[in-house]
Each structure stands twice: as structure tokens, then as C-alpha cells.
Fold this protein.
Amino acid sequence: MSRLILFNKPYGVLCQFTDRGSDTARPTLSDFIDLPGVYPAGRLDLDSEGLLLLTDDGKLQARIADPKFKMPKSYLVQVEGDPGEAELDKLRRGLTLKDGPTRPAQVERIADPALWPRDPPVRFRKSVPDCWLNLTIREGRNRQVRRMTAAVGYPTLRLVRWSIGDWSINGVQPGEWREVQS
């Protein structure tokens, strides 16, 4: 039976088990997960937080990570500014980034979610509002959500992946993991 791990990746943690690219040691998955034979199915950037799935099953890993399977990935996104329906509609229709057109996203404004504090905290500016979006995509290009919100004029301040398919980090604190049925 294959293993599937839900890990709530904290901000600043590399999505690999070793850090080969830096003179200063950065936190990696091995600082949190001591299970032999499991590997990330996809990735999250260093400055993103939230759900990272790990498995020991190559077929499951491909089904989760490969865009051809169109598995939905939902994010809680704090953006700088206050986007209106016109900007949200651009995300809903899909837009063209430097690496080509995106698939349409599902997006809605949401109230500030009850999330854990981020370390370091997101910068706060009294003169610039921010808001939260729930954004779901069915692909996963490099820094795609950040590039999409920036393309409509609202840069991402904080990005938390909340779910992939039916799996969610609901109830899993940052730095913690839980094994589930695959």
C-alpha cells in the first residue's frame, strides 16, 4: 500500500530533503519529516506556505503533479490592493503570461482567513489596502499564482496552498504532517 503524507510547509522551507544550492543552511523537508522513501508530488516555492503532498508511489506522484491530470489546487492568496470584478474576471477567463496562456481559474474574494502567523510577518502599509482571494488552478507552472495576480495589477503578499484535489491541510499546523489514505 502506498504512503501519502500531507505536510503543512512553513514559509522559508525548501521542498527537498537537502539544500545543495546555498552557502547558508536553509530548512528542508528533512528538518520535519523523517520517513524513508517518500518524495514530494509537486513543489511549493520557498516563500509559499501550505499543503505539500509526499508519497512513495511514483504513479500517484505523477497523477498529483502532472498538469495533464488537471488536479485542482486551491490557494488562499493575500494580494496588495483591492481588485474589482473586472480583474477577477480576467483570472476567471485565463490570461497570457510570458510562458503562454493559463487555464481559467476559479477565484473569489474571501474574508481574512484564520491562519497562523507568518514568520517573518507580511509587510503592512497603512496607505495600501490588501485583500484575500480563494484561487483554484488546474495546472502548476513556476510561480503561476503570483504571476497571475501580478498580471492583473495585484501582487501577492502571502500565498498558502490549502488543498490539492480532495486533500487539505485543514487541522494540520505549520511544520506538522499527517499520513492519510491515498
